[in-house]
Amino acid sequence: MSNDLAARPRAGKRAAPVAMASPGRTVSFRPLPSKLLVRLRVLPHRAQRYDTEGDWIWHDQTLEIRISREVGEHDPRYGVLLFVHELIEALLCRADGITTACVDAFDLAYPGADPGEDPAAPYHRQHMSAEAAERALADYLGIDWQDYLGR
User: Fold this and answer.
1) Nearest to 107 by CA among 63, 61, 48, 46
2) Which alpha helices (H) appear in 42-113, and where do they start and end?
3) Distance between CA 56 and CA 64 in Å, rounded?
4) Which residues are bridge partners to 55 per DSSP?
5) Are 73 and 98 in contact (CB under 8 A)?
6) What is the pLDDT along the chain (151 residues), one digit of tens a residue?
7) Straight-line distance from the first to the last Cα atom of the chain, in angstroms, rounded to the nearest whole number
């Protein structure tokens, strides 16, 4: 039997944050909630909390991702790209201790079109990592990135 099993948390026990190093930083990565539920809501753009095509909100152990219906109506693959971006961004933000409220405060005060691209955004690294995955998926699906951005 592998010793890897001994290192896993037992049922009902919370795993402790893991210190991880990456180029230029050390972070404490918080594990996924033990009863994580991801809920996807596809809704009309006008029903978004603010003027955005993709949004995420943590409610305890539930992650709610909201994407604008119109994105997927143009091309159903676009909705998949946006969902994956929001999922990765939300998971990385939670792992790094960045709350929904923190992201919302920055986004709502931001004067431009894509607040996550601003290096001053508290979730800039998480946003850019999510975009890298989104671009890789777009390539796999045969989607031209500029066409996707111009939707």
Assistant:
1) 48
2) 69-74, 76-95, 100-109
3) 6
4) 66
5) no
6) 444 434 444 444 555 555 544 555 545 778 888 999 999 999 999 999 999 999 999 999 999 999 999 999 989 999 999 999 999 999 999 999 999 999 999 999 999 889 999 999 999 999 999 999 999 999 999 999 999 999 8
7) 52
